[in-house]
Amino acid sequence: MKACLHALLILALLQACDTTYRSSIPDSPVYIEVNLDYEDADLIPLQASKFFSRGQNINLAIESAGYGGVLVYHALDDNFYAFDAACPHEANPTAIVRIDEDRLHATCPKCESRYDLSYGNGNPVSGPSREALRRYTVVRSGSKLIVRH
């Protein structure tokens, strides 16, 4: 009996310590090829951003743009970051964050949550959201970026 209680206590502690990140944005396929030499050269300056979505600027035969589209951002640390453009507070593919005039933040037009992009974290800085923008992996190879999930 005592061993059983110990096992249950250990199991409860392990579950309480689970640090797995769970986003309110559903898992969706993401694969985008970004070419910094040609059509995506506008991403080269720091604080530049570009929105990729199903109906606009991706090759539907090989690329996928996540839940609400993908926002690629060239941060102040000279790294590229990619986020799902859907606001995690709204968790709706039509509630798309927009880059602010300061080019350091993105804001949801629906709930007015504001997210910090300056160093690629996507954390909320104001508004009702308590969850960061969903981030995707960016791999750079020369002048090409691969965004994937």
Structural class category: mainly beta
The CATH homologous superfamily is termed: Rieske [2Fe-2S] iron-sulphur domain
What's the architecture in CATH terms? Answer: 3-layer Sandwich
Binned, the helix content reads 10-25%
- Helix and strand element order: HEEEEEEEEEEE
The 3D shape can be described as: globular
Could you say what the CATH topology is called?
Rieske Iron-sulfur Protein
- Beta strand count: 11
Q: Report the CATH C-level class.
A: Mainly Beta
**Assembly status:** single chain
User: What proportion of the residues form beta strands (DSSP E)?
Assistant: 25-35%
Low-confidence stretches: 16-20
Q: What is the CA-atom radius of gyration, in angstroms? A: 18 Å
Overall structural domain count? 1
Structure description:
This protein is mainly beta and 149 residues long. The protein has a single domain (24-148), classed as Rieske [2Fe-2S] iron-sulphur domain (Rieske Iron-sulfur Protein, 3-layer Sandwich), CATH 2.102.10. The chain is 10% helix and 30% strand. The protein is built from one helix and eleven strands; from the N terminus they run αβββββββββββ. The strands form two sheets. It has a seven-stranded antiparallel beta sheet with strand order 2-4-5-10-11-1-3, with no helix packed on it. Strands 6-7-8-9 form a four-stranded antiparallel beta sheet, with no helix packed on it. A hairpin with a 5-residue loop joins strand 6 and strand 7 (105-107). The protein is globular, with a radius of gyration of 18 Å.
List keywords for this structure.
globular, mainly beta, 1 helix, Rieske Iron-sulfur Protein, 7-stranded antiparallel β-sheet
